[in-house]
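Collaborator request, handled under Task 6.
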Amino acid sequence: MKNFVIISIFSLIIFSCKDFKETNTAVESGAQKPVLTNVAYDTITSDLTDSIQIKNIRVGAESTDEKNRFHVSYPNTKFNFINENEEGFAQSYLNEFEKSAIRIDANASAGVDFGQHFEVIEHSPTLMAFLIERYTSYGNNYAEEFFTHMYDLKEKRMLKFSDLFESPKQFSDFVKIIRPKAELDLKKEISKMEYLNQKDKQTMWKNMIELFLEGTAPTDDNYSAFSWDKEGNLTIYFDKYQLASGNFGSQKITLKPKEYEQLIQTKYRALFHFELVEKDAEMKPERPISTKVDCGKVPCIALTFDDGPSVYTDRLLDILKDNNVKATFFVLGKSAKVQRRTLLRTFKEGHQIGNHSWDHKDLTKLGAGSVQRQIENTNEVIREITGSVPSLLRPPYGAINSTVANSAKMPIILWNVDPLDWKDRDADIVAERISKANRNSIILAHDIHKTTIEAIPSVISALKKKGYQLVRVDELFSGIKLNDGEVYRQRK
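Structure tokens returned to the collaborator:
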């Protein structure tokens, strides 16, 4: 059912596939697609290295001029069998998109904006699990899908939901717990339909029963998305159209441990009451040391990096440290939540952390409440990790409207130098473009691209030779009051 729905959505999309390939594994236009093998990358080996890191596939510019956008993140671990599966899952999503995107309509009023992000549900010596969210937008409407990838690290295999049970009977017994809760939720939604009389409401539910029973049947396809918290509360995700017509949307049903734990296999029972291996208490944030540069008196340029942290961020931090350069990192909340130690290292080494939204949605397509959640949830994760709340916002794609400006409650930082590092995956070209920056510029770059990281040593050398101080955004605007909701592209 999941595939049917998403294919139906994609079949509505008319999209161009030119300039399509662009991944973290450095595949230039015209080159072969990446082979699904373990990907080598540079990291540090200190205590601040995250054992789960983030890789990305990106299509489309960090600009509102781009109609069509594709932004996917997926995990990279020390286990090859997980990496191969996760990279294959991401690539198949891209392949599915390519097959659905047959041609472009230049007159189309809106493009497609879709992506994939993930959260770490479990990371223990025996099991690793990720909750993957995919969203797609045609116009202003978002549709969401959820998937859970759960790996047995000892057996080196991906588990299905049914593997949690001793027998099919226990799976069926689990469904008997879920169904009454899902039915109650749907009936509550029906009861809110004031335009229907009681008889019509009863008829509506009667007409839904067949789909409801099919969508909740004990199959791995129906229960392919689930997550749990540290208290063992288990949430099952049902996609839009899975249990009812589209106007009911997607559904989430949560069970307390006492409601289901007796059905779980003995060897997996401890899974739902785990303690994280990488405890946050071990990470004690310290305030970064300011370089106290006065950019009102000396020539400055601000280096900024978007979309991280990623698998390449540690290498970038090594380069900046070796060259005594500070920068500003506009991070995604979901990525920061995964690579917590990378973010903490960024903060402790004196770099500025800015807010780049939770999961890189175009904020201009969201309502005020959703925009606020994108910003506030990201601020909260950053605060938990660093002890400091971001003071600057950079909306994804630089997309701003009155809703975004009013919801920001912090200055909005854009840029005046874009080296197109998302498009031209050539370190020399990127370095040349950035090196042309003038005094008081804000440079846009992305620490999700390997070629961008490779360009930075040359950039630092060239700009320092010209007499520029490379600084954080707050240092660039030293002595100038920045107002909440106002847009800044460079120091005037």
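The cover message to the collaborator said: "The longest strand covers residues 112-123. Residues 1-46, 274-282 have pLDDT under 50 and may be disordered. Please let us know whether this matches your experimental observations."
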